[in-house]
Amino acid sequence: MAGLSATILGCEGQRLSPPEARFFAQAQPWGFILFARNIQDPAQLSALTSDLRAAVGRDAPILIDQEGGRVQRMRAPHWRQWHPALEQMAQAGPARAARSMYLRSRLIAHELRAVGIDVNCMPLADVARDTTHPVLRNRLYGSDRDSVVGAGRAVAQGLLAGGVLPVLKHLPGYGLGAVDSHLTLPRVAAPLAELNAVDFAAFTPLADLPLGMTAHIVYEAIDGDLPATFSPGLIGLIRDQIGFGGALMTDDLSMGALPGPLGQRAARARAAGCDLILHCNGARAEMEAVLADAGTLDGLSLARTDRALAARRQPEPLDIAAAEAELAGLVDGEVYG
Question: What is the CATH number of domain 85-272+283-330?
């Protein structure tokens, strides 16, 4: 659809107020993203996702970060509470880890679709190091490329089987980040050979996924000045070397890693080659600033977002009890916690 804003926006609370609905009807963001502040219980959440789509008059994609572990917006008692992904990978062991991650993501997808959410911001193809910042490390799938790729593919397949689009993150790799990009800008001084062999290489086998998210991180071997989200050189690497052909969104534009006013951030990200601008906190004045400079979807960006939406499908049948029993048999320890 032409004329859509190249944005994904958050909303303030658990219910969509009439002023918010009017604002979104005029703004026409491509999609929405939900956080814990927006979530109370299944009935409330289903109503909110329905109201968001009604506000824009179309079946807009609704995103969430439901990785399991620390980063999951839907929590007990209404939804399964998962251990961190890195813990599950270790408990399952190399032979069973990918299958366990498939079942995990398939069950997550079932919970998401039941409340009207059809995009989940995973898998993560960042490769863990001992120095990876704790905000990220136990969310990852392993410290070697093959484990990360195998689990990442399994996670994506589980989501797609459940009717949920995966978002590959954080392109082109955040595993060497030693600081929290929510607060400050990570800088990586690793040589290009290491980045090509490990970090960037973990994303290449997953480059066919429909959606991806950038990392707010500087790779000094390629662009010593700009984070990937603002760097034409690094966006070019994501497209040409890694081969990612899907719709590319920024990580949250309001994170502390990025310099400058929000409108300027949006314009710089679009100019660098990002298709979609992600703004998460639901603050009206901030969203207006982003909307003013994010532009609309056209050209290749429109084609990529249209292809992503075309990949949405109805969930395949799922025997929940059988999936839970199989997962419990694969993991040496508690699955939920």
Answer: 3.20.20.300
